Amino acid sequence: AAGVIQSPRHLIKEKRETATLKCYPIPRHDTVYWYQQGPGQDPQFLISFYEKMQSDKGSIPDRFSAQQFSDYHSELNMSSLELGDSALYFCASSLEGLRTGGTDTQYFGPGTRLTVL
Amino acid sequence: GQQLNQSPQSMFIQEGEDVSMNCTSSSIFNTWLWYKQDPGEGPVLLIALYKAGELTSNGRLTAQFGITRKDSFLNISASIPSDVGIYFCAGLRAGGTSYGKLTFGQGTILTVHP
Q1: d(CA B8, CA B23)
Q2: What is the pLDDT of residue A97?
Q3: Which of the four, A32, A92, B16, B70, has the lowest number of CB atoms within 10 Å?
Q4: Do B100 and A107 touch (CB under 8 A)?
């Protein structure tokens, strides 16, 4: 079965540079979520989108922005990168996440490992 | 904010032994999910629980959604070396301003000795 696709899988950037992470949800899934996982930590929710509209926002820095496109893929844009942004970034998708009150199961992608030097 | 307390933090067991881990919270969740994560990879869904009291099995895995909706446990029977990894519980609330926001436990690191 098709899974969530994330690209790139690895990304190395310098401080103050910009990065763009892409997420392609499971076909027919209409909701995407972004999570950040630091070393030895559990994933922390950043932001989510349903039908191309932002649906919830977590502890996402103002330097980060995201959007969901008409084909339901999503991009996380990160500017003025800091050393502390080094982490694994996961995208997850679900079907009708908002329509059923957010109880639908989230399936995670393989993640993008961002290293900021 | 909401927190999930997951225990134990780590387990070292022999192949063939049974394993049990649990998560508790001071908040009510409408959905409990259990994931397994290998180093550098994304969490893989093991079991999803949607109703209080629900007991669900997936092969050697069994999980239950607590009656109070504030806790859940995961059991693994007859462990094998490939069970090694980090197991996370995650809770999901519906409604309000928290649509779809998963709250994770701190994880249980499982090591299985052959």
Answers
A1: 9
A2: 60
A3: B16
A4: no
Q: Which tokens in the block code for residue A13?
A: 């950037």
CA distance A66 to chain B (A): 16
What's the gap between Cα A42 and its chain centre?
15
Distance CA(B74)–CA(B110), nearest Å, equals 13
| Cα of B71 to nearest chain A Cα, Å | 16
Per residue in A97-110, pLDDT (tens digit) is 655 655 578 999 99
Interchain contact B100–A (C-beta under 8 A): yes
**Residue type at B68?**
T
Whole-number Cα distances in Å, A6 to A10, A58, A92, B19, B66: 10, 20, 10, 32, 34
Q: C-alpha B39: how far from its chain's center?
A: 17
pLDDT band (50, 70, 90) for residue A28 = confident
Query: What is the model's pLDDT at position B91?
Result: 92
State how far the Cα of A89 lies from the Cα of A97, in Å rounded to an integer.
20
